[in-house]
């Protein structure tokens, strides 16, 4: 049984937990304090407000433990605001949050909430079927380093990337009822688990 945490400081926490708990052999749990990191195999950084989430990470003294866990190989998946938290560079801003993924992101790249949209896309590395993608005040990746694998683009904008143990999506799979990305991440966690235990 895999235990995958969802960082529960702010944002779409319950929706991710519901998706995780719908997968076989996966338990989704809330992560709020440093001790919670010791009992999880992987972590989701949910959508929400990246600036508020960054402040809360610092306020609850979680930035360092989270960084250490990711750097030591724990799989992490950032959705929307979570993508911004992982990025090494945020366009137009002097600082970043965790600064672990070699991507430069544009915040609120698609405009306000009124400019939110849904589309369907075939992402062969994730699923053989079309996947619905929901974008809400979404970022996109303006540029990605050589070690970053681009999984998906929409209108020539990069919206899903992977680098080693890190996955990031500009959209919200937890809002669609489609479990393809949660299954993909769970498999990433499972492979990581077996390599550590072998």
Automatic annotation (TrEMBL):
InterPro entries given in the database record: Class_I_gatase-like (IPR029062), PdxT/SNO (IPR002161), PdxT/SNO_CS (IPR021196)
GO MF term (any one): glutaminase activity
Lyase found in the keyword field: yes
Reactions the enzyme catalyzes: aldehydo-D-ribose 5-phosphate + D-glyceraldehyde 3-phosphate + L-glutamine = pyridoxal 5'-phosphate + L-glutamate + phosphate + 3 H2O + H(+); L-glutamine + H2O = L-glutamate + NH4(+)
Cellular-component GO terms for this entry: cytosol; glutaminase complex
Pathway(s) the chain acts in: Cofactor biosynthesis; pyridoxal 5'-phosphate biosynthesis
Enzyme Commission designation: 4.3.3.6, 3.5.1.2
Protein role: Catalyzes the hydrolysis of glutamine to glutamate and ammonia as part of the biosynthesis of pyridoxal 5'-phosphate. The resulting ammonia molecule is channeled to the active site of PdxS.
Protein family: Belongs to the glutaminase PdxT/SNO family.
Name of the molecule in the record: Pyridoxal 5'-phosphate synthase subunit PdxT
Gene source species: Sporomusa malonica
Lineage: Bacteria, Bacillati, Bacillota, Negativicutes, Selenomonadales
């Amino acid at each position: 049984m895999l235990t995958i945490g969802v960082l529960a400081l702010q944002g779409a926490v319950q929706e991710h937990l519901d998706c995780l708990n719908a997968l076989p052999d996966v338990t989704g749990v809330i992560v709020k304090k440093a001790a919670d990191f010791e009992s999880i195999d992987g972590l989701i950084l949910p959508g929400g407000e990246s600036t508020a989430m960054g402040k809360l990470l610092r306020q609850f003294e979680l930035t360092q433990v989270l960084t250490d866990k990711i750097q030591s190989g724990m799989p992490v998946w950032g959705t929307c605001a979570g993508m911004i938290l992982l990025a090494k560079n945020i366009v137009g801003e002097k600082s970043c949050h965790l600064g672990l993924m070699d991507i430069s992101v544009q915040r609120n790249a698609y405009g306000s909430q009124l400019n939110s949209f849904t589309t369907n896309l075939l992402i062969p590395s994730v699923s053989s079927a079309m996947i619905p993608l929901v974008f809400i005040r979404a970022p996109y990746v303006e540029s990605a380093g050589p070690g970053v694998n681009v999984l998906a683009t929409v209108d020539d904008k990069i919206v899903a990337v992977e680098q080693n143990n890190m996955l990031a999506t500009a959209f919200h799979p937890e809002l669609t009822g489609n479990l393809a990305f949660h299954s993909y991440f769970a498999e990433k966690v499972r492979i990581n688990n077996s390599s550590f235990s072998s």
